[in-house]
Amino acid sequence: MELQVGEKAPDFELQRQDGGLFRLYDTLKEKNVVLYFYPKDNTPGCTKQACEFRDQYEIFREQGAEVVGVSSDSPDSHKKFEKQFRLPFILLSDKGGGVRKLFGVSRKFGIVPGRVTFIIDRTGTVQYVFNSLTKPLEHVDRALDVLRALNKQQMQSA
């Protein structure tokens, strides 16, 4: 079952494309995280989505968020994908799909890994979930809209 808004995101540690380790809750100490699961490096939809996150990356940073992509591809595959498309954000290798399972991201038709974006705030709470395999660009637009709304809420309650 996919994680829902209001639930705590499970902490995890995975290897980044540069070989280092990424731990979710270490990043959440500093900023919100846009965690997006995608099927595979260098496929048409995944490349469009990654490039849209790249093109909007500075806006995500201005909104106090880090973008993190997750697939089961190897760190070497991620490194090539990052270099080819000049991706400024973190790509994580979830070999075996353990983190995908933790977040409840299922496979479509039992074969294709799902495409799901989670926005996780600094408390570790899931604030937004968008699940659409066929609308890769909407993940980016909707995530930005949600972050802007969250920041506005936080400013009003401060």
Automatic annotation (TrEMBL):
The keyword Lipoprotein does not apply. Its EC number is 1.11.1.24. GO terms for molecular function: thioredoxin-dependent peroxiredoxin activity. Residues 3-152 form the Thioredoxin domain. PANTHER family: AHPC_TSA FAMILY PROTEIN (PTHR42801:SF4), THIOREDOXIN-DEPENDENT PEROXIDE REDUCTASE (PTHR42801). Belongs to the peroxiredoxin family. BCP/PrxQ subfamily. This is thioredoxin-dependent peroxiredoxin.
